[in-house]
Amino acid sequence: MIYLPGRAVFVHIPRTGGNSVKNAIASNCIGYGIQTCVSTVPSVYPKFDRVQGHQRAVVLKGYINEWNNIYRFAIHRPMQERIESMYRFIEKLRKSGYCDRPNAHPEIRELICRDNYKEWIKENWSNQTTQWFTRGDYGEDLGLEVYNYNELPDRWYEIRDKCQIPRCELPHLNKG
Hints:
five-stranded mixed beta sheet; 7 helices; 11% strand
């Protein structure tokens, strides 16, 4: 999640290019006079201290009073592609020795280092669809514009302009 007060909120669905989006926005807003709240760093907005990186829109709406007055967006990637991307990401971490790191985050280590990580992901991600992240508890439309993952590079300038942020490129991070 990245929130730009008075401008936009990005709902980050896992394995959809969200770290690239957050990096592009944060690196061109933080320190340039554009208020920014990134879920992965300590927030200057105390009420956001418990907001997770992959938070559902229905939860974020409860934190953001101006929800209906700002640009809201997310990125869709088919579930099977997301799962396969997560497998590749985990395998990359395992090969890099993540499981042997003494300071590895315990919850992340539990997933990365388990023998049955593929079964765990299939079982635990099955309900985490794009609609689950972007709609209300009963399927109500929360007004998010959802972009197709494969079109993200071609649509980045449109997204950037709707977020009202300076011109910037979209990096390609966490390729899994």
